[in-house]
Design a protein that fits this description.
- With 564 residues, the chain is mainly beta.
- The protein folds into five domains: 19-115, no CATH class; 119-205, no CATH class; 214-333, ntegrin, alpha v. Chain A, domain 3 (Immunoglobulin-like), CATH 2.60.40.1510; 357-503, Sandwich (Immunoglobulin-like); 516-563.
- It contains five helices and 34 strands.
- The protein has helices at 2-18, 35-42, 132-140, 281-285, 536-541, and strands spanning 23-30, 51-58, 68-72, 82-90, 99-101, 119-129, 152-156, 165-168, 175-182, 191-194, 202-205, 214-221, 228-229, 236-244, 254-261, 272-279, 288-294, 303-312, 323-325, 330-333, 357-359, 365-368, 385-388, 393-403, 412-419, 429-430, 436-438, 446-455, 468-476, 491-499, 516-522, 527-533, 550-554, 559-563.
- Strand 33 (550-554) and strand 34 (559-563) form a beta hairpin.
- The longest helix has 17 residues, at 2-18.
- The chain is globular, with a radius of gyration of 27 Å.
- The N and C termini lie far apart (83 Å).
């Protein structure tokens, strides 16, 4: 009788949970109790997560996998309190494991951009001067008052960058400082300053020295969470973006060097050089988005490293913004891949996961015909791109699709639409060019497309219908070939303004019939052709002898990118 009682009790327990539609099982990665610890764990991967909380939440909805929330779970043991959690798994019902939370926590809205959330971020300021004139004279002469690199944590949303100039008082009086080192996480600092406090003194300052100023904007591995084996000879690529925010370089070429570094945005003598490449001045002056190929040498120790890019040019006025590192680190493994397969851990619980495809705005770049002050990074651009509705284009040197779900996606595609709003419906105009293929993507990995260009003429006869403000929709998996965790995040809207160049009241400038010389460069910055031409049409026809790709044409009046 005793055995029967135990069996019935266990049976009832299992049935109770299997029918528990009032609960949702979640696995929450603990990122700590402060925003600074969450950034250090999630954005920089400086530390490992505190742990994983397995909880059955009494609520009728699931939290979105991959999102980060700030909440107090109300656990009765331990000293948890309010903490930051990343959702790594969510189930449709409760399960017989983990903690039971009967009072639904107030999760609120997820944190949309943790790395650029208001927090204490580390900077290394060097004194430029106590007055505006002194600071500008020193900055434009590549001088500083001293070489002391102060250590300061500044409370700010978007982190400062090396090479920035600030007017602030962090405890040593109001002065102008040049930032020589900055990070998204907080550090061991001697001083603190709050940029959001009205009683604090802080502002960014821009000096115009009328000299070239090269800036290393970003560098990232081609694939996140990829396998990097030392000594294997397996080729990898790092995508980079550099620009000139000063006047044009006149005489010298620019050297790009890629390193494997233990510190972020800093290079030491012990760091390992991976690759280098030279770029001619005409190419750099118009900005460069390209890639460096590399492999991990055998002398690299096993561990985690940043990819760090350094640019060098003798005419550059500000060398403090010439180094940039990848946001996260890559893991170097032994040179010989495992000969026996690593056993796949059995998930608990084990329902089938789903993919979740999005366009990663932080790693997607767009250029239009006539928006020279548009930031090419989708997540940072606040302006409308301008597109000639007769023959214009929108160019995407890099498009990154990320799978933030819990299972591998199947192959699908990327399509474009023109819409009056940010929602895809039957009234939107579909791009009549071929869709862009997207390979299967593992969870938490990126698939990177290169050289995607769409033309205004591929949306039909839009010269008379599309003028003014519209949106170009980038739609992943519009045919719904993947069953996703979230079917509502596949669309990215890019605000654009279509204009008709022939509607201008001013007369178009007549093209000169005198011969002039043009230089043509490939996407890697190498000169591939020099030719004498008389018209813009002859400039374009010069590409006929070249293979398909992205080229830069440098003529007497302009530098422009052309897709063949």
């Amino acid at each position: 009788m005793k055995k029967i009682t135990l069996l019935v009790f266990s049976f009832l327990t299992i049935i109770g949970w299997s029918q528990s539609s009032n609960y949702r099982y979640h696995e929450l990665q603990d990122l700590g109790s402060t925003i600074e610890s969450a950034i250090a764990i999630e954005c920089i991967q400086h530390y490992s997560p505190v742990g994983v909380r397995e909880v059955n939440l009494k609520q009728n909805f699931k939290l979105e996998v991959g999102k980060i929330y700030k909440a107090d779970l109300g656990l009765t043991y331990g000293n948890f309190g309010t903490r930051y959690y990343k959702v790594t798994y969510a189930h449709d019902s409760g399960v017989d494991m983990g903690d039971v939370v009967d009072t639904p926590p107030n999760f609120g809205a997820p944190i949309t951009d943790l790395c650029n959330s208001l927090s204490r971020k580390f900077i290394r300021p060097i004194l430029l001067g106590s007055t505006l004139q002194e600071a500008q004279n020193n900055f434009c002469s590549s001088l500083t008052v001293n070489s002391t690199r102060e250590t300061v944590n500044i409370k700010i949303a978007k982190s400062l960058s090396s090479g920035d100039v600030c007017y602030m008082d962090f405890g040593k009086g109001a002065n102008y400082y040049l930032i020589d080192g900055a990070d998204v996480e907080s550090g061991d600092a001697d001083y603190e300053v709050d940029s959001t406090d009205n009683n604090s003194l802080f502002s960014l300052v821009a000096f115009n020295c009328q000299k070239p100023d090269l800036q290393a904007v970003s560098v990232d591995p081609e694939t996140i969470n990829d396998n990097y084996y030392r000594g294997s000879g397996i080729g990898k690529r790092a995508y980079y973006y550099i620009r000139n925010i000063g006047t044009n370089i006149e005489n010298t070429n620019t050297l790009l060097t890629l390193y494997l570094t233990t510190s972020r945005n800093f290079i030491t003598a012990n760091d390992i050089k991976l690759a280098s490449s030279g770029l001619e001045r005409e190419y750099v002056n118009s900005g460069v988005i390209s890639a460096l190929s590399f492999s991990i040498p055998y002398n690299a120790s096993i561990g985690k490293y940043y990819l760090t890019l350094k640019i060098t040019n003798r005419e550059d006025i500000n060398t403090y913004n010439n180094i940039v590192s990848s946001v996260s680190r890559i893991t170097i493994k032994d040179g010989t891949p495992p000969t026996t397969p690593i056993p796949t851990p059995t998930p608990t619980p084990a329902p089938i996961g789903k993919p979740d495809l999005i366009i990663d705005p932080n790693n997607t770049l767009a250029y239009s015909d006539d928006c020279f002050d548009c930031n090419p990074t989708l997540s940072e651009n606040k302006k409308r791109h301008r597109i000639n509705n007769q023959s214009g284009s929108l160019r995407f040197p890099i498009v990154s699709i990320k799978n933030i779900g819990t299972a591998m996606s199947s192959t699908t595609n990327l399509r474009f639409y023109v819409s009056s709003d940010a929602t895809l419906d039957t009234s939107d105009i579909k791009y009549n060019g071929n869709p862009v293929s997207i390979n299967a993507i593992k969870p938490e990995e990126l698939f990177v497309l290169q050289g995607v260009t769409i033309f205004s003429t591929n949306f039909g006869n839009i010269g008379s219908t599309l003028n003014g403000n519209w949106n170009i929709l980038m739609v992943v998996d519009d045919a719904k070939t993947n069953t996703e965790l979230n079917e509502n995040n596949n669309i990215t809207a890019i605000p654009v303004t279509f204009y008709n160049p022939f509607a201008k009241t001013a007369q178009d400038k007549l093209e000169s019939q005198e011969s002039y010389s043009i230089n043509i460069y490939n996407f890697d910055g190498q000169k591939v052709l020099t030719k004498e031409v008389k018209t813009k049409e002859e400039e374009n026809k010069s590409l006929d002898s070249l293979k398909s790709g992205i080229y830069i044409i440098k003529s007497k009046d302009e530098t422009r990118k052309v897709i063949k």
